[in-house]
Amino acid sequence: MTAATGTKRPGGPLLLGVRHHGPGSARAVRAALGAAAPRVLLIEGPPEADGLVQLAAEEELRPPVALLAHVVDEPGRSAFWPLAEFSPEWVAMRWAVRRGVPVRFMDLPAAHTLAHREEPEGEAPEPGGREPGRTGEGPGPEGAEPEPAERGRTERERTAKEAVRVDPLAVLADTAGYDDPERWWEDVVEHRGAGADPFAPFEALAEAMEALRETHGHGGHDRDLLREAHMRLHVRAAVREFGPDGVAVVCGAWHVPALRQRATVAADRALLKGLPKVKVDLTWVPWTHRRLARTSGYGAGIDSPGWYGHLFHAPDRPVERWLTKVAGLLRDEDRIVSSAHVIEAVRLADTLAAMRGRPLAGLTETMDAVRAVMCEGSDVPLALVHDRLVVGDVLGEVPESAPAVPLQRDLTRLQRTLRLKPEALERELELDLRKDTDAARSRLLHRLRLLGIGWGEPAASRGSTGTFRETWRLRWEPELSVRVAEAGVWGTTVAGAATAKAEADAVGAETLADVTALAERCLLAELPSALPVVMRVLADRAALDADVGHLAEALPALVRSLRYGDVRGTDTGALGEVALGLAERVFVGLPSACAGLDADAAGRMRVRVDAVHGAVGLLGELAEPGPGAAEAGATGGSTPGPGPADRPPTADTPDQPGRGGGRSTAAHGGIRGRWRGVLRGLAGGERIAGVVRGRCARLLMDDGALAEGEAARLMSLALSRGSEPAEAAAWIEGFLAGGAGGGMLLVHDERLLGLVDQWLTGVSDEAFVDVLPLLRRTFSAYEPGVRRTVGELVRRGPGRGGVRSATTGMSGYAADLDRERADAVLPVVGLLLGLTGGSDDDGDTGWGGGRGDGKGGRVAAAGGRTGAAMREGGWMEVA
Amino acid sequence: MTVSVERTGTNAASEPDAEDGDRDAAHALRPHAEDAFAAELAALAAQDDRPRPARWLLSPWAVATYLLGGTLPDGTVITPKYVGPRRIVEVAVTTLATDRALLLLGVPGTAKTWVSEHLAAAVSGDSTLLVQGTAGTPEEAIRYGWNYAQLLAHGPSRDALVPSPVMRAMAEGMTARVEELTRIPADVQDTLITILSEKTLPIPELGQEVQAVRGFNLIATANDRDRGVNDLSSALRRRFNTVVLPLPESPEAEVDIVSRRVDQLGRSLDLPTAPDGIDEIRRVVTVFRELRDGVTTDGRTKVKSPSGTLSTAEAISVVTNGLALAAHFGDGVLRPADVAAGILGAVVRDPAADRVVWQEYLEAVVRERDGWKDFYRACREVSA
């Protein structure tokens, strides 16, 4: 005790200024405490946690853990004080608890800290007030600051704050001629072996800090003055109780000068007067090394917790031990790493350190050595080393006796407000999403599902199939409580945790489809803040996924969620952008993906083309608003007319002369226009599979984007004798067998029927025999009724007058229009569509197309043959 | 003797006739590093008071300074020979200091040979102990050959032996260089194993051996894009510390390198300098970087990478090409159209896959970018 001159002024308590999470500091603290044997220990931390200290004696409390303080009614407002095994505070706490020395936390109570954060709206940062996630992990003021739990904002604040704050470590390192404060600290403190005097390091550091604070004052950390006043009060009280020799204080080195400072009790109290206060709860929560690392949201500002842990635990020869560990990891991953490699790596690391003028090889040197010797210069295995060892996979544990995690509280609160009791008995729940409570329930269940808490499982709705209905099967299993506790690492509220989990899932997702599914779930669970990350990942995946098939499959789901989000009023701007980008990529990649496919693959591709077509139609609708807006809209003339894609083919715009070509240029800018360009390329492509070509031609035709002659040309090209019969039939299949109403189309659009009939009539007898089985495959898929009708139509032929009377049930689809009757419908249609005067013209051109002119004879001629075969469904017999 | 023939380059540091060397260097189309920078090396050596490994002319610290540039206490300015991360040079120099062979990897155009030459010049004062790796490199090039006239006349003796550069480096404690190691056939590569692990080269014909003297080391370069040419055996690989030379870190650095080189090249071709060239150079560098890195410079959009390397050297050639186009067929100003064709040629190496990559890039990135309209149009024109 007499040697305890370290940071002890005569008659003062033992002040151990540390660097938070510094293993060297931790070791030094252990040595100093052992030498000084204080009777009470004060630690920088929220005093409300005094009652939780005893848990540190239990083996089940295994670091990394964090003290979590949150506002009682509002678990989302919280702060963390993470502690790793190598944190000086943790070491000191364990030391004291094991010896029965009382531990007290002396920082500003969390009640004030959290209350302070609350002002305006509880979220907005205030200049100089709020503690941001720190950057320097120095002994500086940022050190033991609680981590703000609200994520996302920290980054922004950090940059804003940094400008005004002084990083004491950086100043010291700079003075010592180091450009990197980290390295300076490692060299002067962490890598120093145990000296003879356990107090000497603290003394030196305290002096340095004193000099710094003389120059910089509070260095932009004005809130520190409050905290330090509070600490002084606590220290004074402890000194009164235990005498100056019996008190040891562990705090950030930055605060040491302030604690030495002589201030009157009255002055300190005055400072602390009238601070806002909220009711807070504290508990221990498990923490991970990854979260200690700076890269993750709640970062405690340690780049390399695994390395620090290693330094703390290694009894001697840290570099040799570390490199052996690395070699072990690489061997486990099937890399050939021999002892010779380790030897060489150690040599390289040591020599590098010597060359860089460092006393001992640090993390940089060892990693350089690992890269050059063990990884053959590659950064890929090095990333693994960084992930597994430098950061590490360590997960802390908290005993069951620790108070409940706030996530559970939040869940309980939600269950209460939504009147959803957790019951072990299974029951079904019908939700009507139009009601607020039901919508909130749905959100909660979706969020819990995202968190892996399977309380409710979606079930098929009975009765109504409306999108506003959801059916859930609820059942609360006891182990779900454990899941809730586990999910506690993701956040303190259900919404926050689900957001964090969704983001993590997105980053870790295996396939593109997984990410799209996740995006859909995010929308269902209404987690808009997770969407940016999910979208980011989605865009990245889409960009790198070389398989157009994947992209094409992902697009429809994405567009669906886009529309769904639209219905719910979620902001889906990012989603739309991603969908457009995805579509663009599909457009570029599709032509080469459709080339050289076998029959099966071609069939799958046809389905994808259909899916993309539908999605593009929807997307075009969402991206390019209705016809009225389009004229004035930014897309201007490039917008195709009023949704031709969704119009039934029978109501299609007639093929005005030159219309097809004119439209394609005009629509070039719009997404649907570009899609049409792709389809056109596919339909005319040489190496494209027949079924896909046929399908594309058909889609174009349905869109009215093909002049009639053009379709006929494509068809005759596809069906010409030069092409393989199989290909020709596949083309027919693609062209005619689309969706549910392929046959109906033939029934209702006799233009198509005319084309087929025309071709069939032109086919020579031998070729007819060849294509017959292939055609049969297409037509036999039609429903019998459709088949029969087609047969009848063909047999009847497209004659004019007499036809109408012959087909009693089909008068509306006669070959030639009954203008009078058609005109009679127009006013009603106009009324339905909300059109006024102009509609008459539209209707006229739209309905009065003179097709079939001059073709009647041919179709009629073929009538007997085609019609009979179709009616019977027995083409083979005919052949 | 072969020795004298191979040693055309003079060694300013170790040989007395520096005058000769100067004259040679002045006439040489491209002088050796140790000649071109003799003054810097001498200044460094004079002021270098740090410990030097055996037979090193400079301390490792001074070698690193020589490569990275700096100012000496007496005010001598050392020009940077390598622009890139300090870490790389430090690891490379340290590797040599620890007696380990150094393998410099990198895509073409990342200054591997340049770094290896300067390292050898700074460490041993001689960068000419060089074995150029080709598919036809024989074992003799790495071990030793025979002077058959001598052999027949006098029988096997050391006099009849023609030492390889590696053998000479071993005997004299110098730095040997092997260029394009992966192009050398695998069985020939493996002759290096004994040399690097036992540090000895047996001559069974004479019952002798040449033992490496302290200071001997070997720098090899290899191109990591040409995978599968003659991949190193793991036994050999284990003998090397590997340093990967990266492509330039920041766009600014790359623009700087490109414009400087283009300027030099343009002068040698007597092309008029383009006043607005810097914008197009920046554009070319941006396109190359984005496609290479697979992500746009703003970090917001990922893109696919084509099969080509798109190294800085290629960017230089695209710009030079464009300048020639602009000077001879255009209005003398470097325009988007002048570089578009060159970029297309550099990017689309594999007509199927790369074309998709390029079009995706055009549509997803270039089309959206402000001020890139001309470029987009020019690219569309040549791509269509």
TrEMBL record, chain A:
Database matches in Pfam families: DUF5682
Biased segments, Basic and acidic residues type: 148-165
Disordered: annotated segments: 113-165, 626-669, 842-864
Compositionally biased intervals (Low complexity): 648-657
Xref: PANTHER family: OUTER MEMBRANE LOLAB LIPOPROTEIN INSERTION APPARATUS, PTHR30634:SF14
Protein name per its UniProtKB record: Uncharacterized protein
Organism of derivation: Streptomyces longispororuber
Organismal lineage: Bacteria, Bacillati, Actinomycetota, Actinomycetes, Kitasatosporales
From TrEMBL, chain B:
Family matches, as Pfam families: AAA_5 (PF07728)
Positions of region (Disordered): 1-29
Every ATPase dynein-related AAA domain range: 102-240
GO molecular function, one term: ATP binding
Compositional bias per record (Polar residues), positions renumbered to this chain: 1-13
Protein name as catalogued: ATPase
